Each structure stands twice: as structure tokens, then as C-alpha cells.
Amino acid sequence: MLGSYITHCLHTAQVVRRDDLAFKLKEISDRLDEIANDRSEFRLISRSLFQHSRLVESTALAGGSAIIGRDEVKGDIVSSLLSASTEVLKTISIVGMGGVGKTAIAQLVYHDEEVKQHFDNRIWVCVSEVFDEKKVAKTIIKGVEHVKRFKGADSLDSFPLSALLDRMCRSIHGKKFFLVLDDVWADDMQHWEGLIQTFKHGAPGSRILLTTRKDTVANMMEDSHVIHLEPLSDEQCWMVVSREAFSGRGVEECRNLEDIGKRISNKCQGSPLAAKILGALLRFDSGRKAWEKILNSEIWELDFVSKQLFASLLLSYNDLPLPLRECFKYCAVFPKDFVYDGETIIYHWMALGYLGLNNDEDLELKGREYISYLAACSFFQDFLLDTDGLKSTWKMYDIMHDFAQFLMINDGIGIEVNQGGNSTIDLSLSRARHFTAYIPEGHCRARHLTACIPEGHCLPSSIYGAEKLRSLTVISGENAVTNETARNIFNQAKRLRLVDFGCHNALMGTIPKEIGNLIHLRHINLSGNGKIKGLPGSLCKLNNLQYLNLDNCESLGNLPNEIGNLINLIYLRTLHCYKLACYPKSARRLTNLRQLRGIVLRADRNDPNEFTLGDLENLNHLRELSMVLKGNAVNDRELRRAKFENKTHLKEIKRARGMMTVHYEVKASSVGE
């Protein structure tokens, strides 16, 4: 069987059948359009996206509201975990509806200092809807053995289930472990029997904490203490909403809004996540009139969403400007529990046109603002931002991921491949989980395909319905993409704007010349593919290409002589390409470059064939530059010809590696290690 990771076009079949869901979504979408068209009736007020003084303040509060009303539950769980019981194994199951805070409580318990000190090992496994025994076993082994990646003959991906269970048994034997199984759906004991028997080899006092929406899952576990996580009371919901909504407001303003705020918070149906999201929505709508329109919104009356958390989410989602809606939805093409990297996601958004098409604009800055705004609106979980405000990571709440998939129903498919490359993916809307049948013309609407591929398996050689794909991403899997598969995809999916094979040695060989067929391509990420020795000249025909990442392509010996034809290239990376000779002379024509990492150039003299220091002369849009310098000395004439004084956007020049460092003073710039 080929499909398991369901970020396919929405695994919300637990709520309604797939075909019904598509129909309902269309109905809801049409109704939302009607509501939103009359801005005076719904959209409240027109406002600039980032003109909110409360944005930074609210981000600092993110996460705190999740513990309101849950201190007693958390304390009970911690006490049970730390009890001096001699039982070999005990399970605590947290059961509750989506968005009620199960994962949040589990995280609080998992990071509790007493819990950390009490157990030899702590392991967190996100199980999700499609149960995969091998995935659970591998995650536990890696957690206990403190290894992120197994290579070669020790690769766990080649192990059958029996061997994995045996390895897991040896790993946990005699160790007091704490295992969190988050978001469990599978309630068939046959799926769990092998794992449960293996868990018993841990030391006395080992514990399992399980979160699920289903009582049948909790009842299946042996020696299980079940905690039914009840919805928050109206008063507790109001505490969450008011903490978010009143951030930065004066006492009188809060008093004037309190009565209507409580009526809005009563619509949360006890969900702390809904309360948090509604609070964030209210925080950015300043007046009583705006709050009244939220209270009276027709979205609350939509039949399908009225019984679910989605009503609150739809309100906040519909309040987003259109570009942010597209950016948020795109997050659904990655699997649950995925750790999003802000820089990578921004580059994806750019390639797909979600940040606009004006290259004179600082699209990276816009992307960072979008991420901060979505985080402030509580669309992201575990949001971390570095001190410079440039790099960010986050996850998504399970229910928020479900919601994003709900919105992405016709556009995104994700798969996890569990067999070899001689199979077929079918992007059919109605048969997306089978990956075998031919798609009738016009039936497939999927625009994005993301694949998780375990080591030892390959992306299928045929992808029916790939003609309409805009993005193709492989997020895990060594030797996952064969030359034949890459050739077939590049021949078929000619509307691709983004190809991301940037994981450890995802490509089995070289890039086929057929990549030159992808005339709309804007983004190519081949980083980490150590087997690539060169690039085909046809790649230089991609006039729309803006991003080319070749970092850590350790066998890359040269770049095509015609690389200067990529006149729209903005980002070019070749860090840690240790066999790379000098850049071709034609690279001096890449005058739109803003980021140039790891360029290999000759510094000691001019050369008719190799890129030299002076060839940086016209690259005046550069904002980031790191160089590998060839030669025994820096030629003063070449240094003057580079005209660093004209590169006013450049703050720092780094030596990536080489024998010398350029010392040259430029406006607000420095050159050094």
C-alpha cells in the first residue's frame, strides 16, 4: 500500500464523507463570499495589515492562555506519573474533542521539571489519523538511543516490523521511560498488540500518556486511567478571550467592551483554542461596533460549521487579507507535527506568488511580517523567533492543521511512500488515497504535492495528473528520486513553479536535462544532494528562476557556463560545495542577485574564463555575500574594480573558506570571518 501520510486533500472523513465535504466546502465558500462582499455588513473596517500596536505584545502572550482552567488536570497527571507504583506500565489517556487542549496539557506535562528528572527517557510521538506501527517504533528507538538519523546498514527504514520491535525492546529494556502518544485515532487492538507487549520491557514506573478524541482508543489500552477533558466553562473561556482581546487596552475601553465580549466568548463551545483565536481577532478590531458585527456574523449560522470549532476559525480566517489566507492554507501540504522553518516557507510563498510579484519590493520582509501576523492571530503553535527577528520556527495545532486541509481540499496532496518506485501516484480528487487509477481529463485539481519518503523507498515513477502541479516537495528520503522519476515529472508537470528536493541525498543521481522544460520554474532547492556532480545546461533556459540552492552538494564540480542567462536570479547558494571550481565568468551578468552564498572566485588576478573579485562590479543589489577566495593574494586592482562602495545594501561580507580575508571599508559594511 502506498499512501499513509494524509495531508492528502483533507482527511476529514471522520466528519463527513469526502464527496459530501467537497460539496459542503463549495457551499460554505460561496456563502462566505456573499457575506464578505458587503464589507459594511461583515468585514468590519478596512485597515492596513500591520498597523497594530498590539501585535508584538500579543505575540509575547502566545501559549499562556492554554493553561487557564487546566492547572488541576496537569497536577493530577504529574502526580500520577511520579507515583511510587511498582506497576511495570501504566497508561494515562486524555480524551476530548478537537481544540479542547489535550496536546497543550500533554506538552506542559512533558516539559515539567519534576517529570524530566524522574524518567530516564522521554519520547514524544505524533501518531495522527493514519496509524503506522513502524513509524511509532522508529521514533521511540531514536528517542531512547538519542540518534536523529541512522545510516547505512543500521538504517531503521529497511527493518521489518518484527526487527524494529526487537530493537525497541532492547532499547527500552530496564529503562524507566515516559512516552507521549499524541493524537491517536487507531482503536483496533491488532494494530497495537506488538507495540504494547514491547512497552512492557521498560523498567517499573514507566508511563504512557496518550491523547485522543475517541473513548474507544483509551478503553483499548491496558491499565489505563482515563481523563475526560471537559470543555472550559463560559467564565474560563472569557478569561482566555479577554487576556488576548484586552491586551494593550485601557481600563475604560475594556469595561465598555466586556458585556459584548462575554457574549462572543460564549460561542467558543468550551474550546480554549477557539477562545484564543477569537481573542486574537477581537484584539485587532478596536471598537464596539466591530465587535457587534462579529457577534452577529452569519458564519455562526452556517449548518456545517456551527457544530464545530471551524466556525471560530472561519471568522478569523475570513478576517485575514487574501494573501495571508493563501499563505496559511499552503501550510496544509506538510504533515502534522511538522516543524516549519520560516525562511524556507517564505521562499516557497515567493515562488508561488503569494507575496506578490513585484521584485522591487522586499518580499522577505513581507513574508516575515506575514508569519508574525499569523502567529499573533494564534494560527501557529510553539512559535519561536530569534533575537534579530529574522528566523522563526513553529508547528500547527492538530485542529488548525485539519482546518487548513479543509480549506485546501481541492489543491493539496501529501503522501508517505511505503514501497518502491515502480508504482503510480494518482492525484485524482476522489481517489487520492489509492494512487493507481487514471484520472479523467479535467478531474484532477491538485496543485501541490508533498512527499515523505522513508529510506529504501522511492517516489513513484509515474504521477498521473501532474500536469497542473505548481509545487513538488520531498521532505525526507535518501535516494528517494530516481533519474527516471525526475525525467518523467519534468516532462509532464510543465506548470511547476517550485521543485524542492532539499533533503539529505534525495536525488539518486544527476538532474536530467528535461528540467529545462519547466519554463515557469522560480524555485529549485537541491541542497544536501551530495551525489550531484554538475547541472545540465538546459537549466540555464529557465528565465523565470529566482532561487537556486546548491548548499552542501559536496560533489558539485562546476556550474554551467551559461548560468549568466538566469538574469532574474535573486538567490544563489553554493555553501560547502567543496569540489566546486570557480564560478563561470558569465555569472557577472546576474545583476539582480540579492543573496550570494559561497561563491568561488579568483581574487589574485583577472581571468578571461573564471569569475574574479572584480566581476562583482555590477552586482549592486547584493544584501548578503560570502566568498571562497582562490589565489595567494588579493589583487588591489580587482578589489577596486569590485566597487564595494556602490553596494549600499550590503552590511557584511564573509569569507566562506579560503586562504585570506578581504579587508575593505564600505558604507555601513564590514568584511571579515
TrEMBL record:
Q: Please provide the record's keywords in A-Z order.
A: Plant defense, Repeat
Pfam families, sorted: LRR_14, NB-ARC, WHD_DRP
Show where the Disease resistance R13L4/SHOC-2-like LRR domain sits.
468-654
* InterPro entries assigned to the protein according to its UniProt record, in alphabetical order: Apaf_helical, LRR_dom_sf, LRR_R13L4/SHOC2-like, NB-ARC, P-loop_NTPase, WH-like_DNA-bd_sf, WHD_DRP
Q: Where is the NB-ARC domain?
A: 77-247
Q: Name one GO biological process term.
A: defense response
Residues of the Disease resistance protein winged helix domain = 333-404
What are this entry's molecular-function GO terms? ADP binding
Annotated Gene3D superfamilies: Helical domain of apoptotic protease-activating factors (1.10.8.430), P-loop containing nucleotide triphosphate hydrolases (3.40.50.300), Ribonuclease Inhibitor (3.80.10.10), Winged helix-like DNA-binding domain superfamily/Winged helix DNA-binding domain (1.10.10.10)
From the Swiss-Prot or TrEMBL record, give the protein name: NB-ARC domain-containing protein
Give the organism the record lists: Rubroshorea leprosula
